[in-house]
Design a protein that fits this description.
single chain, mainly alpha, 2 domains, 2 strands, elongated
Length: about 150
């Protein structure tokens, strides 16, 4: 599996064809900033060149794969040492932006997302503890020993 970034057209967040959104995803900056830079360079610097570059990006770049961030269940869990541990997937990562132009979540939203993840983990741990301390677990364990 390659960890190298790929440049795709992001049609999910597209305004026209997703070229600016794909460039923003590739460089890790906000989409609105790339769009403003494109429009500014179109009017002030080289209009025909920027138009041709956008149309070329539209035809050359592939669409972003839809299921690229989701991992199969076998790759989420890994066995190493004692017990099963969760791997961190791209969907679980919370990226906090420190500057206005960086891509990511504002700190307040990131805090709420992380709090939600901890609450879900605590609820899961409570269900596991409830099962392990139940008589059903002890009965299943005794039956499996036979």
């Amino acid at each position: 599996m390659s960890t190298r970034k790929q440049l795709y057209r992001d049609t999910e967040h597209a305004r026209i064809a997703g070229v600016c959104a794909g460039v923003a995803n590739y460089f890790g900056i906000e989409r609105w900033l790339v769009r403003i830079l494109f429009v500014t360079s179109f009017f002030l610097l080289a209009g025909p060149f920027m138009l041709v570059a956008y149309i070329a990006g539209w035809f050359i770049l592939d669409k972003k794969p839809i299921g690229s961030t989701t991992a199969p269940l076998e790759s989420i869990f890994q066995h190493s040492g004692k017990g099963w541990r969760n791997k961190v997937t791209d969907g679980d990562k919370v990226s906090v932006k420190t500057k206005v132009w960086q891509a990511g979540e504002p700190p307040k939203q990131a805090f709420f997302d992380i709090s939600k993840q901890f609450a879900e983990s605590e609820a899961r741990l409570r269900r596991i503890e409830k099962y392990v301390t139940s008589k059903e677990f002890q009965l299943n364990r005794e039956i499996s020993r036979l």
